[in-house]
Amino acid sequence: MKYLLAIDQSTSGTKALLFDEEARLIARSDLPHEQKISENGWVAHDPMEIWENTKGVVRAVVEKAGVDKNEIVGLGISNQRETALVWDRETGLPVYDAIVWQCARGAKICEGLADHAEMIRQRTGLRLSPYFSAAKIAWVLQNAPDLAGRKLCAGTVDAWLVFKMTGGKEFRCDYSNASRTQLFNIRTLSWDPEICALFGVDPEMLPTVTDSDGLYGYTDLDGYFEKPIPIHGVLGDSHGALFGQGCLTPGMIKATFGTGSSVMMNIGEKPIFSDQGVVTSLAWSMGGKVNYVLEGNINYTGSVIKWLVDDVKLLTASKESGALAASANPEDTTYLVPAFSGLGAPYWDSEAKAAIVGMTRSTGKAEIVKAAEDCIAYQITDLVLLMQQASGLPVQELRVDGGPTKDRYLMQFQSDMLNIPIAVPKNEELSGIGAAYAAGFALGFWDRSVYEKENRTRYTPQMDAATRKRNYDGWKAAVESVLTK
To answer: Best exposed site among 47, 149, 284, 484 by fewest CB in 10 Å?
Structure first.
């Protein structure tokens, strides 16, 4: 029996997933890493902790599955996107912590480039924002000590892992990750020297951009494998989920529910640019051919529930939230706007502050938890409606993935607000599955018939139109109350 390995390096932790010859997930192992959150809300990760955890989860998943590690034929990588880091090319050590996608510390850098915002959007498909990697890399280059004269690498987490896995021999990222840096021209499919100069980033610091199903080198994982195995598929986590969900044709759309959320629509081989709050990125490049997507990103979705557990102490575990929300008064008018680090798409207001609005004397614990659950679905709804309008493509179904999709209350409310079916796959690890598929297809380990084996649970709309409109109008009013621009 042969096996294929996938690494899913996410915001909260690192997972190793092991698949057999039938594309069945046979074992999973994961390790969390520290969330370094400063008093002013800046968020960072330790790159070396991520690297050590990557090696640790691979060892653990092989042991857990009880397989011969020499039977593993290759691996794919999915990774948290936009998170950026800078490291010394010669020592292989980071010069600073990785700046996480949630972190807005590059806001002033972006403010200083406001006159160039439209040019940047036209070339990269992205609104000028500290959300993306460019301002994070610029911030590190401006603030990390003792960088003069050093040969530096700057990139996203996939490039870091490829570099470490290959012992510094390969410095590569894939097209999906490159398109989320705000330094990559999605028209010319190359790093944009003018934009790089605006952010103070030397293009020589940036990785070689490689097909998402291309060969990224070979790894023995720091001596673990007796014979090096190929790294043959790399995708940003949301793109991996799109590929894993089988959203391969224009108009197909998925939403990843995680710490934050990504809503992504496949729009085909030609870009569509929107000025309505969603951005244009590359879905992937497979076999030398690119696909584009419309995408919107939300900073706080699943992490809103984590906030209720860790900080507000309204819950003892995230899994309690759905049942409690379902018990709340459905007529309660409380809304939670989770602008803990500003608002991402489609509002793009990094100065907005979080708020709970619309409470009455009868609002209690269950109603506040319901407002937290509902705000996740409202934010997804904002983006799906905008994408449908921008693309002109009708949305027949929303495919979803991520841990919160186990929450029956949330999934039903999401279906009700969008008035379309929600399809939840049996396997929740869609980001890692997508990377595994990319690697497996490239290696000839599987073919695309694997998509036909997926079983899905479907939620269909139950809410009447008047209630849907009243709920959504209340959400839009709540958001308007916190916007600063």
So the answer is: 149
Written as six digits, the tokens of 274 are 């929107």
Residues 6 or more apart in contact with residue 355 via CB below 8 angstroms: 336, 337, 339, 478, 481, 482
Question: Which tokens go with 3?
Answer: 């096996």
CA–CA distance, 290 with 410 (Å, rounded to integer): 34
Tokens representing residue 70 in the block? 């020499």
Which residues partner with 185 through β-bridges?
A: 190
Question: Is residue 20 within 8 Å of residue 61, measured between CB atoms?
Answer: no
Q: Are 72 and 3 in contact (CB under 8 A)?
A: yes
| Helix spans in 115-180 (H) | 117-124, 133-143, 157-165, 175-178
pLDDT digits (tens, 9 = 90+) for 445-463: 999 888 887 788 999 999 9
pLDDT the model gives residue 333: 96
The pLDDT, as a whole number, for residue 188 is 96
State how beta strands 72-79 and 229-236 pair.
Answer: parallel
Q: What is the 3-state secondary structure (H, E, C) of 227-282?
A: CCEEEEEEEEHHHHHHHHCCCCCCCCEEEEECCCEEEEEEEECCCCCCCCCCEEEE
- Asked if 435 contacts 238 with a C-beta cutoff of 8 angstroms, the reply is no
Torsion over CA: 284, 82, 295, 421 (sign): positive
Tokens of 35: 């969330």
Q: Is 243 left (phi over 0), alpha (psi -120 to 50) or beta?
A: alpha
Taking the CB of residue 312, how many other CB atoms lie within 10 A of it? 12
pLDDT for 336 equals 97
Residue 209's DSSP bridge partners are 173
Rounded Cα–Cα distance for residues 406 and 440 (Å): 27
For residues 111 and 128, is the Cβ–Cβ distance under 8 A?
no
Q: Is the dihedral of CA 237, 243, 247, 251 positive or negative?
A: positive
Q: Which fold has domain 3-237?
A: Nucleotidyltransferase; domain 5 (3.30.420)
- What pairs with residue 5 in β-bridges? 18, 75
Sign of CA dihedral 281, 438, 254, 30: negative
Token pair, residue 243, equals 């590929």
Asked if 316 and 306 touch (Cβ cutoff 8 Å), the reply is no
pLDDT digits (tens, 9 = 90+) for 101-116: 989 999 999 999 999 9
CB 43 within 8 A of CB 90: no
Amino acid, res. 235? L
Tell me the pLDDT tens digit for each residue of 105-151.
999 999 999 999 999 999 999 989 999 999 999 999 999 999 998 99
Question: Cα separation of 190 and 184, whole Å?
Answer: 6
Distance CA(413)–CA(416), nearest Å, equals: 5
What CA–CA distance (Å, rounded) separates 24 from 291? 27
Mean pLDDT of the chain: 94
The confidence band for 290, taking pLDDT boundaries of 50, 70 and 90, is very high
